[in-house]
Every structure is written in structure tokens, then in C-alpha cells.
């Protein structure tokens, strides 16, 4: 009696939440089931697969893996020349005390160089060290064939990929300062190949050593114990920081393209969680091209949730998505996603052994919360708080000495530079192999012909007082001059990049009784937005405050503008052009009717450079 | 035990250890270090540290250790025991410098720390890497330290066992030397099982050395350490105190103990003093009272965290504070030079403890005083101690007038201390009350039917 009743109850429960429970159950099984028997499976698998691969490749590449007696010597030589072994061996040459000291004191020797298709670059090497000799890209033969098949379409693209690969193959840091939307997928391809190459080298070594150790008699004294130093504190060795789920979707997809033979676990769940639900219409993608700016489509299409993290575990036969962090090889995450986990667990041991860090869309991350990035960087390569089942006899010595940060390769990709991103590059990239910053020249932004642009410079002595001085200049000089003019005192947009400046100006404006204004900021909801736009267009409100983030995330075309005031130059140079073109959305507007004022100081150099062009910016600064 | 274990060792250079000399151990023997067969690198360090002649234990132990013999050494702390095993180990290691070469076990954390420092000092020229694995400190940091594969590991048994079990990839399979310092305590009931476990996972092919200040007669215990054909080196009789130590007692009623105590400490101002109490509670109370009376005092007991304990000790060592108030955690093994006076605020309930306590002063041939407070309740213990050391102590008279003058102030300080302890939730705490400091473990024996047991039951 009792049993039947419980069964019925259970069945009812199942029916009620059939979808959910089933889903959760399956995940749990997937996550927990393969964990316990891993060791056994590994040992067996190694043998099986190596045998299989010998068959496949005719014994050419994998053959020398198996044949230890004869080929060992040749292999040793090869291995020392390999950039991975040179950089991440148990005792890397570049990790000298003097190099570390130079990095700590930020004494870098800089030199200019041209990196093929990547353009001009500034190379910084720790003082007293030498530039790493680049021995090719260190790509595994198996992957090399993939590389050629990938990019046979376009010659220019192939050349770019090749240059990029040999550039990052040296394990130097790379900072791309003008990452074009068009080349994004190219970079992703090459960088995922680099990641894959890196992980495969690590895994091969570890598996081979596992095998050797399990074959060795138990009580044998470890003869040359250095040979088994092949790992960090924890397994994850690659971290990819990304702003949105959609970015993670692109990256994982790009990565999986390089591993066509691997079986992928949890692929369906991944598609569910990281793209838009089926049937959902992405108006950014479905709209005819040109409706929305390219960069907006590239950044904002797809699932733009910024709270996620996902581990990818790579084995010889399969790839598992949503793997537990400590058994993953790659972590894809948003800074927010990591932050939440760090705060919950009070530790971030899974970040202790990151050897390659990739930050894509750094510019978009600046539009999110910069504190999260800084928090993540603080935990990168820190000493772990717990051991997580690490085999301590196999940890590379420089991990134990806390030198992992000096070897980590960081690759930053940003559409443009801000002082924050530059500071990150200067302060947090400690790679003793050196770092490379691409230098990009900026053309002037295209603006509608005939519009008078007025650049107003205010003097200020230090970056600390810049905010106050700017506000002072705005409140005492620029704003009164707007009010004096009958034309400029209405239909005026005040564009304010920083949210803090925005709140200050807004509360100040509220106290002024001679002006009506409305606002568009990142915390306006849809109703408030349409009300504001309506009021501004109709002229019932004379002025409109717009923040940069609002425009970045929404990209509304705002109508009814005649006068544009930039409280500071925008980070996105295209916004400048866009705001100057908006007045012409309304009919009958002549270029003479439109005025534009840009308030700037010498600390706006980077922003201004992108607006007026690299050629002009110095003149403007000195004027 | 083989027969050679009990036979006295005669050193190869023909120096016959004189039984009389052995009696007052700690004194420097006539043997210069350079006759012991040490390599020049070590001799240099020894010389640089200012030692010329080896102490008796060193003179006897080093040559046989260099001949790869197992050793049982009985010598007081302060007699240069540590160097007696450190030097031969370092020399053997130098011939075959492998990681995880030797492991030294000590019963207390402080002692382990001290041994590690000594190894580092003696091995400074050789570049030996030494790590200290004790409880109370960060496990992860220790795992990292062990993963760096140090040459010498100095450890307390519990934490070492923890690492052997839980630190993946750490083993002592390549170990060549095992040393048990204060071996009688390491082999007793508290540490015994842990030591047994450790012995199971280290190679049988190794050299073993046992050292202790007081060697228990229960030879059975020693068999656990599985020594092979050991040489016994003994430089002191079982229970004895150094001849340069003057021993006194203060007799007075329990009520007046605090007043007497403070009067005494004041009259000894300028000297460095260790006061031993029987309970943590007394330690705290006395510290607070002395501080209230403007006498710099620091406490040392097992309720303090390990880092605080090390800090306290260093402060006292450096001379920052003149009075160290401690439970028996500080009784053994600690080498604090220049302790002038040891005061037993509570009479130790075990005569062995008494010997360890007063062993903190009059070290290495210096003079020192030990003063024990005896109340009407303690006479029995006191007599037993006198019997064991074979000496009648002189009475130390506290001038009554002086004590009377202080009485009021002391009472006030006592009240202040009580208040403060109440704030710290210690005075009335169920656990903290009148309990003997268990010092992370219990001492080898609590005499049956005495002190502690009865008090607890009451």
C-alpha cells in the first residue's frame, strides 16, 4: 500500500516538472559518472589510442612516441627547440632572477618592429634579457594540416593567420589595440588552434608520464625526478575572458572546428544555454545589412547574457563541455561569472595554473564592470589555498616558487585602447619572454560635410583633478555659453561618456531653473527611453543627456538633434560620427544648422586620436 | 636489543668517555671538532659559529654516526644534542646530496622549529634545504614546501603523518636518516601509534637515531623504532640536574602565593625569568597581573596559535620581555640562552617535568637559579622531587615587609586581571578552568591518584 502511494506521488511529481527534473538528472549523471573511474580508463586508453593512431598515421608522427629506444635522442633535441618546451619546461631559461627583477621594477627595453600582416608593433623585453628566438610556431604536425585547410580561401587571410600564429607561438604576450570586427573570426581560429596545440602538448606529456610511472615498479626510487615535472597546481591551463555568452559561443565553436574527430559531450546543452532560444528572432541579424552599425551587430547579436562560465575538458577521444573546473583544460568565462564564483568560494584555485590567458573584446569589457577584470587578474596565478588532489611530486618548480605569472602568456584583443586597458597591459602582463603591443594608426572619423566641429580644450595639471576641472569648465563656461545662444539652448544633446560624470551633471542641471532636460542612461528602462526620446524630439525638453554605455548597448537613432555637446570625447570614435549624422535624419536640416562642441583635456589623447586621426591629434593637443 | 646497545661506546680516536665527565654533561669536552672526522666544509661552519671543542655527546655520537651506526643518545638538552646528529647527517648528505634525505621528528613545534634553524645554520655552507612541518601552520604552504623536495624535513609526527596521507606525491621512500629527538616522548602512548604508522612507510634500509634528555627504562618502546645494532651514547645519569644550578624553594601558604610571587619577580628585576605554571589559566592570570604592575611579561601556552607562540618566544629571546610565563609547552627542548631564573609557580606533579623545567637555565656551564613555590598542598610533590634529584633544596626567604607593602597593589592587579579574563571568556569557561595544559598532547604519565585526576573529579 505504502509503496504504491509513494510511486504514484513520485510519478505525479515527475509529470509536473517532467522537463526540468529530467534535464537536471541527466546533467548530474554526466557530471558525476565519468569521474571516479578516470584513472583506470586513462591507463587503458593511452595504449589503445596510441595503437590506433599508429595505424592511422602510418606510424610517422605517433610512431616516435611509442618507440622510445631509438628515437629518444632525436626527440630530445626536437623538444628543447620547441617553443612550448623552451617556455614552460621545468626550468625555463628566460625565467632568470634578473629578468624577474626587471619585470618587477618595470624596466623594459622597448623596440619597434614590424610583424608582417599584423602591422607595426612595440616589443618590450625585460631589461637585460634577450628576445626569444622564434623557432617556428611550434604547431603539432597533426594540427598543421588543419591550419592549411582552414584558410585556403583568401591569400591575405592566410598570411595574416600565419603571421599571427608565429607571433603567439613564441609565447610572448600580445596586445592587439585595433581589433577589427572583420578579422575577429580569423583571430579566433588561430588563437583556438594555439590553445589546442598548447593543451595537446601538456596532455601528451602528462599521459606519457602517467604511463611511465604506472609501469615503473612501485618501490623503485625515482631516478631522474625532473623528468616527471609536467604540471601545475591544477588542470585548467587556458582562460578565455569574454563579455557575452554569444562570444563564448563563437569561441567554443571555433575551438571545436579544430577537433572534428572528437566526440563532444553536452553539445546540445551548450547550444541551448549559449545561443538564443530556437525560434527567437534576432533583429540585429535579420535586419538588412546597414540598418545597424557593423560593430553593434558583431557585439550584440545572439545571447548577450554577461554572467556565465564554462569548463572544457579535453581528452584524446572526446571533449566535454560543462566539465568541473578542476578537471577542465580551458575555462571560458565572463569576468562577472568568475567574480561571483570567487566570492562564493572565497578562493580561485582554478586560476592558479593558467598558462595562456586570452581576453577578447576588451573594449566591450570596459563597457561592463572593470572591477571584475581587476579582481580576476588579482587571482590569476596566485598560490592555491587547497591542493585539489594535485600530485605534488609533479608540479613544475616555478609554480612552487610562485613564478607562474612571469611565464603566463596573455593575449589581449581590443577594438581600441583606453587608459584602463593600457594600464592592464603595463602592470599586469609580467611575461619574462616579453610583450608585443600592436600600434595602429587611426584615420579621422567621417562626419557629414559642412558641420562645424568645435574642439574646446581646458587646462588641467593632473589626472586626479581632471574630473573636477572638466565639470567646472562645463558649468562655468561651456554651459552658460550654450544658454546665451538662442539656437544652441534647445535641441541639444549632451553626450557624457562616464556614468559618474553623468550623475554629477544631471544633479547639477536639476538645480538650474532656466533649462528643461531629459536623460538616456544605461539604467533607463524601455518606457523611460521612449518617453525621453519623444519629449526631446517634440521639443518639450530642450536638452538630452546621453551616456556612452546607453548608446553602446542600445544604439538608438535619436532624432531632433541640432546641437551636439561632447562632455568628453567618446571612447567609441564611431559614436562621434553617428551623433553628428543624426541631425540629418530630420528633413530639411542644413549642415550650417548643426553645431558640435567637444570638451577635452590632454588626458583625452587616446580618444581624440581616434576621432580626429593619428595625424591631426598632436596639432590639436598643442593648439 | 642486541648486547652492543647497552655497552658504552668508545670512540675511534681512543678517547674513552669518562663516566664522571658524563655525569655533569653539557660541559664542553676536551675533544676538538677536527678530530671527529668531519669534512672541512662542516668544520668551517662550526668554527664560524664559534665552537672549538665538541660537547661530550657530540664527541661520542659523531664518530659512530659517521660509521653508519644506529645511535641511542641520552643527554640533557643544551648539551649540543642537535649538532650531534645534524653534523653527521649533513656530512653523509654531502656525499650523496639527494632530496628528502633525512627526517627529524620532535614532540613539540617549537623544538622542531629550533632544530630546523640549527640545521640551516650548520648547513649554510653546503646549501642544504630544510623545511619545518609542524601543526598549526598553513597546510598548503607546507605542501608546496615539500613539493620543492627539501633535503631535510624537521617535523612533528602528527602533521607529518597528515602529509604522508594527504599530500599526493609526497613520500619518504628515499629517506636515509630518521632521527627521533626527545625520543622517550615520541615513543610514548600519545605519539606512539603515529610513529608506528610513519615507520611503516619509510624504508627499512635507513639509519635511525634516538635522542632524549631522559631515557625511559622501558626498552620495549625503543624496539618500535627498529634500530639495528645501535650504539648507546650516554652522558648523563637518568635524573640529574646540573651542578651549576642553585635550587631553592619558597614556602608559604597558598593564599599568599601571588603576593610572594610578585615580590620575588620584582626583586629579581633585570634578570631574564621563566615562570612555569601548571595551568593555562594561571599563565594568563599571572601575565595580566604582571602587566598591570608594569612588568613586561609574555604568555606561552597551548591555547595560543602557533604563530603567536613563535612570536612570544622570539620576543623573549630577543630580550624584549624579561618574564616568560609558560605552561609545560616550554619545558622541554627549548634552547633559550641566558635564562637566569626558572620559577616554578606550581610544583610540577611529575619529577621528570621538574628536571625539564629547571633545565631551561644553567645551560652550557652557566650558572642559574631555580625557585619553586611550595604551599601546604604541595609538600608531598616537593619531597618527591627532592628525593629524585637527591638533593635538599635551600629555602628562599621572601622579606615579609616587602611583601606586605605590595599586597594591596597585587590584590588590585588580581582583580583587574580577573575582570579582563572574564572579558576574554576564560576565567569561568568550563574547559579552561583549572585544567592542566595538555600541550597538544599529554605528557607521558600523570602519576596515578595525584593532582589532576582528583581535581577533575571534584
From TrEMBL, chain A:
Annotated InterPro entries: UTP25, UTP25_C, UTP25_NTPase-like
Chief subcellular location: nucleus
Keywords, comma-separated and alphabetical: Nucleus, Ribonucleoprotein, Ribosome biogenesis, rRNA processing
GO biological process: maturation of SSU-rRNA from tricistronic rRNA transcript (SSU-rRNA, 5.8S rRNA, LSU-rRNA)
Acidic residues bias: start-end ranges: 52-73
Subcellular location: Nucleus, Nucleolus
Keyword Hydrolase: no
UTP25 NTP hydrolase-like domain boundaries: 171-435
GO molecular function: rRNA binding; U3 snoRNA binding
Keyword Transmembrane: no
Coiled-coil residues: none
A cellular-component GO term for this protein: small-subunit processome
Location of region: Disordered: 18-73
Sequence ranges assigned to domain UTP25 C-terminal in this UniProt record: 446-622
Annotated function: DEAD-box RNA helicase-like protein required for pre-18S rRNA processing, specifically at sites A0, A1, and A2.
PANTHER family the UniProt entry points to: ORF PROTEIN-RELATED, U3 SMALL NUCLEOLAR RNA-ASSOCIATED PROTEIN 25 HOMOLOG
Family assignment from sequence similarity: Belongs to the UTP25 family.
Protein name stated in the entry: U3 small nucleolar RNA-associated protein 25
Native source organism of the sequence: Serendipita indica (strain DSM 11827) (Root endophyte fungus)
Lineage: Eukaryota, Fungi, Dikarya, Basidiomycota, Agaricomycotina
Automatic annotation (TrEMBL), chain B:
Highest taxon listed in the record's lineage: Eukaryota
One Pfam family this sequence matches: Helicase_C
GO CC term (a single one): nucleus
Basic and acidic residues bias locations: 419-439
GO biological process: gene expression; ribosome biogenesis
PROSITE patterns referenced in this protein's UniProt entry, alphabetically: DEAD_ATP_HELICASE, HELICASE_ATP_BIND_1, HELICASE_CTER, Q_MOTIF
Motif Q motif: chain residues: 31-59
Domain DEAD-box RNA helicase Q: 31-59
Subcellular location: Nucleus
Domain Helicase ATP-binding: 62-233
Domain Helicase C-terminal: 260-404
PANTHER family attached to this UniProt entry: ATP-DEPENDENT RNA HELICASE, ATP-DEPENDENT RNA HELICASE RHLE-RELATED
Name of the protein in question: ATP-dependent rRNA helicase RRP3
Organism: Serendipita indica (strain DSM 11827) (Root endophyte fungus)
